[in-house]
Amino acid sequence: MSLSGGFSLWLKNDLHAGPFAFDTSFTADCKELYFDCGSVFQPHTFDFTGNAFYMPTFYGMFRAGLGFTYHFTRYYNEFSENDFLPSLRFCWCKTSFFNVNFAIGLMLKKSIIDEVNNYQLNLFKNSFFLGLRFDWNINSAFNVWCSIASVDYYDYPLLGTPFFKFGADYKFRDNVSLESTLSFKYVDMITSAVYLSECNYKTAIKVYF
């Protein structure tokens, strides 16, 4: 299990983010059963995310199973949004040095706008999401990774807005690690001209127990 606290700085931000944020998260990794939850605090919004995955190991080479994600975001005095994401997940983990994670699933989105909430008018929208991540475990203390996904931990746009992320983790003590992540968010990459909507740098401290 682990606890982490992080600070994010937007080098370029859109209406959803920034210019800075603080987040905390908890993780419980039981090999085949995984759970995490976290929240982020920004000047104009609050987000909460929770994940639960069950992925048994097959033939000592790969893991496959089901996952579920719930996300809640609140724009103060404006609107709220709930996202529900059931998913299928796969991990190729034959070697300890390199592994690949892939996820595909549905995204069910429900929004509530404050101005019309008295009329009990809710907005519903369904979509899909994809995620692909590569990890290289250089040694027992140092790990680097990269990913491309249509959703982020605290950001769930409709399909067509990919996130490109690059990260590194360094465990400088047996139970403490330092994490750094650089993230790029592109809007309408599939349907129209490519536009860089966000660029974010995050650093975090994680404590294992």
Largest sheet: 12 strands, antiparallel, barrel
Which range does the strand content fall in?
over 45%
Number of strands: 13
Percent in helix: under 10%
Helix-strand sequence? EEEEEEEEEEEEE
* First and last CA, distance: 6 Å
| Spatial ordering of strands, largest sheet | 1-2-3-4-6-7-8-9-10-11-12-13
Give a concise summary.
With 209 residues, the protein is mostly beta strands. Helix content is 0%, strand content 71%.
Would you give an account of this structure?
The structure is a single chain. With 209 residues, this protein is mainly β. Helix content is 0%, strand content 71%. The chain has no helices and 13 strands. Strands 1-2-3-4-6-7-8-9-10-11-12-13 form a twelve-stranded antiparallel beta barrel. A hairpin with a 7-residue loop joins strand 1 and strand 2 (20-30). It starts with a strand and ends with a strand. The model has no long low-confidence stretch (mean pLDDT 91).
Relevant terms:
single chain, 209 residues, mainly beta, twelve-stranded antiparallel β-barrel, 13 strands, 0% helix
Question: Which secondary structure elements does this structure contain, and how are they paired or packed?
Answer:
Elements lengths: L1 E11 L7 E11 L2 E9 L3 E10 L2 E2 L3 E14 L3 E14 L5 E16 L8 E16 L4 E8 L13 E11 L2 E12 L7 E14 L1
Antiparallel strand pairs: 1-2, 1-13, 2-3, 3-4, 4-6, 5-6, 6-7, 7-8, 8-9, 9-10, 10-11, 11-12, 12-13
